[in-house]
Structure prediction request, 213 residues.
Amino acid sequence: MKQLKVPYLECLDDMGLSEIGPILETEAVREYIHSVNWKEYPYCPIAVFDIARSKTCLYLRYFIKGYSLKAVYNENGSNVHKDSCVEFFCKKPEDKQYINFEFNCIGTCDAAHRESREIKTPFTAEEYAQIRHYATAGTQPFEERKGIHSWELTVAIPFRLMGIDEEHLPQKLLANFYHCADETDYPRFISWNPIDVPSPDFHRPEYFGEIYL
Prediction:
């Protein structure tokens, strides 16, 4: 099981997401998403994330470089995993439920409180509005672009959306980080912590790693 320690950076809440790149570059923890879990999908582009926290939010900056770029979905709650997508799933160790945060490369989000892939309570419009994001690929949807592309997505997720009291943070969360692009010319299903099941399935809390707050 992989582990990481999330650094505390007080300044992040006072900065715009488009401005915090240099801070995360030098002060955040960087991890790689490069576990190829299914031999039927061997493609593994460059995929990394930087992670840090403030008092109120968890900050993630993803960087992806690889073949194909696609962002068809522009409504929150839609099937963003079919686009060029990055994901963060998490839960408190004692919880039976987990939360999935999925973002395509223009920042469209699909999030829910889940018991499983099938059983979920989708986020409300008010909950989506609390998630901030900045996407270098822009904000407008587009069909698949061929060739090699690089893109970044920075998100700030309030702890309260994860069911966490920001005044009393747990010692750790269980979590995994993913990159996928289901309906592109180069489908891929890669993860930070490895997943040992027969076919692609990110909804596997038993394969979450540990992130210490």
In short: The mean pLDDT is 97. Residues 3-212 form a domain with the Immunoglobulin-like fold (CATH 2.60.40.1190).
